[in-house]
Amino acid sequence: MDLMNGQASNVNIAATASEKSSSSESLSDKGSELKKSFDAVVFDVLKVTPEEYAGQITLMDVPVFKAIQPDELSSCGWNKKEKYSSAPNAVAFTRRFNHVSFWVVREILHAQTLKIRAEVLSHYIKTAKKLYELNNLHALMAVVSGLQSAPIFRLTKTWALLSRKDKTTFEKLEYVMSKEDNYKRLRDYISSLKMTPCIPYLVDL
After folding, report:
1. What is the pLDDT of residues 100-123, one digit of tens each?
2. What domains does the chain contain, in order, with CATH numbers?
3. Angle at 90 (CA atoms; ends 86, 95), nearest 5 degrees
């Protein structure tokens, strides 16, 4: 899934450069200026608890998911050329996935020091855990995909600062959401929920 484009790619370059620098943890001035101009409205993700963050994401996902019509899924309309007319709600649901993934990547790369970047990364792992507990598998996969993306995965110094608990949590989430055997573990988990409400990852609908 294409998470990086335009300005976000430039932020990634600045963040990666700061990872490699042994004398300074700060992003370049150019990266800082880009951060200021990226959005008119910016909020500090660290000021929102993982519980609140996961809850708000889920509240936004529910109406989009509920709007999907059965025929959009049975016809796999979102994969067709005329997807915007044949499966508009499924497309909107997929767009939500992309927005969340992009947001995760962007916020981590925007952090101006190595320490803050590690804190934001940890925050998203905790948020992913809360999404798992809420059974919002759609958003959970979006966050996990963002954390697995190349721009984040290669921030080795940032990952090195995570606690053992955070690393273990992320490994467990990766395990459940793995694509191995056509998402067998995820399918087994969904089956175990029985009648428990959940927001599924679209590929498993």
Report:
1. 999 999 999 999 899 999 999 999
2. 48-204 (1.10.840.10)
3. 120
